[in-house]
Please model this.
Amino acid sequence: DRITLDTLLLCIDKDMKDHKRYAKKIDFSHLRRLMSGCEEEILVQQRVYEFLINEVKLYSQSA
Model:
């Protein structure tokens, strides 16, 4: 079975909600350096990056 991006993001959200310490482990400068590919791939990567920023803001405040 293939996992969809939406399913993956929901799993990440649940894990970060359950384990708030994960928010402190994300290295955004490293993630930015990993972004590559065609324009469409980079757009998806940027959206995931923004999702992670929001997750960290949400769950690092409530930790």
